[in-house]
Amino acid sequence: MKMFPPILASTTGCLWVLVQGLCQAEPPSAEALSFFESRIRPLLAERCYECHSQQKEVKGGLALDSRQGWEKGGDSGPALVPGKPSESLLIGAVEYHNKEMQMPPKKRLPDSEIALLVQWVNMGAPDPRDGAAPAPSEARVTDWETEKQFWAFQPVLRPEVPEVKNATWVNNPIDAFILARLEKEGLTPSAPASKETLLRRISLDLTGLPPTPEERKAFLDDARPDAFQRLVDRLLESPRYGERWGRHWLDVARYSDCNGMDENLTYHQAFRYRDYVVNSFQQDKPYDQFVREQIAGDLLPESAPGSRRERLIATGFLSIGPKMLAEDDPVKLQMDVIDEQVDSIGKAFLGMTFGCARCHDHKIDPIPTADYYALAGIFKSTRTMQKLSVVARWHERPLGTPEEVEAWNRHKTAFTEAGQALEKEKRAATQALPEAVRKAGGNLEKHFPEAVRLKLKAMREEGDRLATQFPPLDFAMAVEEAKPENIRIHYRGSHLTQGQEVSRGFPKILSHSQQTPPPENQSGRLQLADWLASPANPLTARVMVNRVWHWHFGAGIVRTPDYFGKLGERPTHPELLDWLADEFVRSGWSIKHLHRLIVGSATWRMSVSSSPKATQQDPENKLWSHFNRQRMDAESLRDSLLFVAGKLDLTQGGSLIPPSKNPMDGGRLSNVGKAVDPSLFQTNRRSLYLPVVRSEVYEVLSAFDFADPSTVSGERQSTIVAPQALFLMNHRFVAENARSMAEAILREESTDDARIQGLYLRVLGRTARPEEREAALRFLTRYSAAWTAAQPERTSEAGLRSWQSLCRSLLSSNEFLFVE
Fold first, then answer.
1. For residue 103, pLDDT beyond 90
2. Is 553:595 a contact under the CB 8 Å cutoff?
3. Closest residue by Cα to residue 129 from 28, 25, 26
């Protein structure tokens, strides 16, 4: 049994110093620069440039419109100490710690914006702005033909499958591309994984759950040549598949059940988008259709009964991002929402960081500011928010037939008019009171005439009756068309300083033919959806097949799955990437077709063993000479713990968050983030269905690197740290499931030998080896004796406690936690 090694404090300290030194020596990552461009530069431009910009005014000698400005600092010295927010003057000023230095002086920044600045400084204050701040500019001079030579902007062309020497190793074209490169480098692929290993690997890969002992026996006993293909087909049809792979996409879609950032109000209807994603993967919805529906589902014709409901829900992709609902500038709030939409679409579907061009021409990639505002105009012409003033509200749309919607609106009108009539009656009665009574305040209604009080009571009862009799109608977070309009370029991202107007359209670098502007009477979302989902788009298919590869192998052919730009990683096998992208489109954009290709390849079926030569020559396994050992992600770990304990609730769909009591509001004013009810997480449902709270991710998931729900996350971190081992050994959740396992195994098996074998089959998917069996028996004897000696009054519990401890040991093992 492979256990976590102890991590000594002294060793951890040394490693931390080493890591810090390495981080300081390395240039900022693409993700760090993207964070600056999308979150920090707009904040500085909006809040600071008025008084600390070389283009306007430099108060206190401090300029914040260039990196050199804050490095030099003002009259008080350098503004920032990278990595140390508590020692940075700028952070102290915005936090109002010093009465003599409070910035901005008129009003303290919102906590969420201060948190962004603190996060930036903690990251080392990455800032790509070299030299002095540039003067405002409306256009850049770009050599488009030269820029289009970059690999990601080239059209997808199907390459020839290479010939290889060891043709017997090849199962499908994927293997030919991989083996050709290995042979060129003088390397050989590792041996195939065992049938037992493949069963556990494919089960966790496609469903997020380990195989049962019964499934293991059936597969190992199946001697047919196509036994593995049959297994794959069965798993792809399992309802567990859609849940597993839908969760992958929810990382990309920055899914959450609340707005985060400030008010942290509940998105009561967000679960409908989550269930839409799960169903889309389960049905193998063509990916081009999946893209179109999320961008412009409300504008697509109804193809089948009920499809309009589904497509309205799909546009939740544009609505579920984080929002600053307490922003007191409604124009800025709207532009921030638009910015989040543009940036998320760029990363999710195209692997590009468009958000960097909000304030200036993209410093790295050929995305001029004009292209950013061409896209932004499409979403300015789209209604995402119901209300932009404090506290802002997002837009929701009814899901029903026209007749059902009309009936609901009639009832809403009656309910609203009843409330207005009540308020009017109260105002009139109040005005009729003597002035002295009104000025005294308190409960003025007790001074009303009895007839008026009775009338108000009847009006309230009528309002209550109407509130409980709303026609049943579902709502969804969704967008719809608004007044079409173009946007002017915003200098430095601020709507207060604007330049030339830009027609709505798409990025020039990805348009290989003359663009047709959207019709004047439409937002352009439908045309954008068609452009994104077009086979001619050089990035859409490439980005998605790379994501699928990444989720299967633990790393992509492009190892920066959300960024295919110039600072991103180059593809390890560009011809394979293009072959897969072309094959994806030819298959009708079928993701299940990709699954069958990938898991059917000899490449995916290799063992994790690596030859010494491959380890030395290719330590990151970019040539794929062996399979990457992968740690379970957070959801698979939690679900597997419940599954092997026999407690996992497989109920599908719906929301665990209590519904809103306000029939008019859909839950928009319910607070789930500032005082999270722990009982929401005390469920045995799959982790997919747990509420995702941006400000407070459930601890069981956050301990194992759950994705940041505030941004597109195509790649999760996979850390190995001491708290994870401590969690598995000590957390109540693990202890409770270990106890359930112990109770079940004691109930189901009559001998210790059978119990030990049963535990190993459940937890590790294999039988116990003789030495493990002997070690387990010794452990049970010693633990039982120690328990009896320590707590003689509870001797009757010794047996159960010893088996519970053995179960927990297996659940804490590397062999359970990692997938080989």
1. no
2. no
3. 28
Taking alpha carbons only, the member of 747, 738, 755 closest to residue 816 is 738
Residue of 569, 575, 539 whose CA lies nearest to 556: 569
Asked whether 651 and 685 are in contact (CB, 8 A), the reply is yes
- Vertex 206, ends 804 and 255: CA angle to 5°? 90
The pLDDT-based confidence of 306 (bands split at 50, 70, 90) is confident
Closest CA to 591 of 171, 236, 230, 209: 236
Range of weakest confidence among 73-87, 545-559, 711-725, 777-791: 73-87
For 314-318, what is the mean pLDDT?
98
Is the distance from CB of 697 to CB of 690 less than 8 angstroms?
no
Distance of CA 612 to the CA centre of its chain: 37
Predicted pLDDT at 374: 95
Tell me if residue 477 falls in helix, strand or coil. strand
Q: How far apart are CA 678 and CA 553, in angstroms?
A: 35
What sign for the dihedral angle of Cα 118, 120, 122, 124?
negative
Residues 52 and 58: beta-carbon distance below 8 Å: yes
Distance of CA 592 to the CA centre of its chain: 22
The number of CA neighbours under 13 Å toward the Cβ of 102 is: 10
- Each residue's pLDDT tens digit, 546-597: 999 999 999 999 999 999 999 999 999 999 999 999 999 999 999 999 999 9
Query: Do you know the residue count of the chain?
Result: 820
Tokens of 10: 């002294």
Token couple for 77:
């010295």
Beta-strand relationship, 630-631 and 818-819: antiparallel
What sign has the CA pseudo-torsion 391, 395, 401, 407? positive
Residue with tokens 């009964």: 305
Sole residue written with tokens 């492979």 = 2
Q: pTM here?
A: 0.85
* Beta bridge pairs of residue 480: 383
Q: What are phi and psi of 396, to 5 degrees?
A: -125, 150
Compute the Cα dihedral for 435, 439, 444, 446 and give only its sign.
negative
The span from the CA of 771 to the CA of 707, in Å, is: 39
